[in-house]
Amino acid sequence: IVFGERISNIGFFDKITTFYKYLTSLDGGKLIACDKRFIEITDQSLDGVSYDFEDSSGRKFYPILFASKDFFDVFSFSTSAGRLFTEEDFEKRKELLPVLLGCNYSHKYGIGDTINGAFLVIGLLDSGLFYLDPGKSENVINLSNMIVAPFVMDEKADPTMLSNLTGFGTLITKDDSLLPQIAQKAQKLELFDDIEFILYSEQLQRITKDSVTLIMIELFSLGIILFFCMICLITALINYIDIQKNELAVHLLCGATPFDLLVRLVVPLFLLLVVSWIVSAITIKETATIVASLFFCCVLLLIAAVFPAMRILRRSISEFYRENEND
């Protein structure tokens, strides 16, 4: 739902309140509405949690998302601890506003903790959760660093927030006859000079296309970097074999097989990849991704070892000695 300019500011709060209640009570329709604000958290340090911006005095501000009840019904969020919002959380304003915290807050706050003396932590969201807000952005918005709160519709509601929730909301419905009814209601209340409906499916297709394009560009860039890194690594291993010809020849003379030389060559490379994998595993903390990265490391190890292995296996002890004599 996209609205035009306000017709008048006189009685706007009462009108937009009536219209919001009308949209949230429609039979056969759900209003997905949210509004992102920013708060300064002063009761403790939040190292490890990303903030949105920092002002000139060094104060850091963190995102907090206020959303309608239908927003949570549509996206079906889940918690690793605590509970989700109930009907009462949306209908009755409490002294401490209940909030859900993104997974990156889990090392700082627990269930029952308070934030700034104004918010009560009732749940910690699972990792990997996200939401879409096509009315404002085409981005997929991650909830890992987000504080999520219910929007309470009462006389203390913020008029600007209420206007944003209504004016940038998304209506989920299979009944197209609701659309002219909504337009008539807005016209009757004399809220906006224009109202437009944009298909959510078209926005999702555009978001999906842009996301796929961005992922392909990143994969292509990473592929180029990986290609040159592998070339440099293989070249370094081959040069190592050439430099250590004397030592390798002595090793063969002492009874080593070409396979022993290959193991000697691969072990340092394996240790290097394992260290990098451990660092990524600690950072990612997702089982599927960790297993996939381990498999990818093993594949890289095999690829990097192919050419040096061929160079070793094709040489006999006599060839090693002959090259040493020529040097």
Note down, in words, how this protein is organized:
- This protein is an alpha+beta fold and 327 residues long.
- Helices cover 50% and strands 17% of the residues.
- The chain is built from ten helices and 14 strands.
- Strands 3, 4, 5, 6, 7, 8, 9 and 12 form an eight-stranded mixed beta sheet that branches.
- The longest helix is centred in the C-terminal third of the chain and has 44 residues, at 200-243.
- It is elongated.
- The model has no long low-confidence stretch (mean pLDDT 78).
Features:
327 residues; alpha+beta; 50% helix
Please give the structural blueprint.
Layout: E1 2-3, H1 12-24, E2 29-32, E3 34-40, E4 53-54, E5 60-67, H2 69-75, E6 79-82, H3 87-91, E7 97-101, E8 114-115, E9 119-125, E10 130-132, E11 140-142, E12 147-150, H4 159-167, E13 170-173, H5 178-189, E14 195-196, H6 200-243, H7 245-253, H8 258-284, H9 287-313, H10 317-326
Parallel strand pairs: 5-12, 7-9
Antiparallel strand pairs: 1-14, 2-13, 3-5, 4-5, 6-9, 7-12, 8-9, 10-11
Helix pairs in contact: 1-4, 1-5, 6-9, 7-10, 8-9
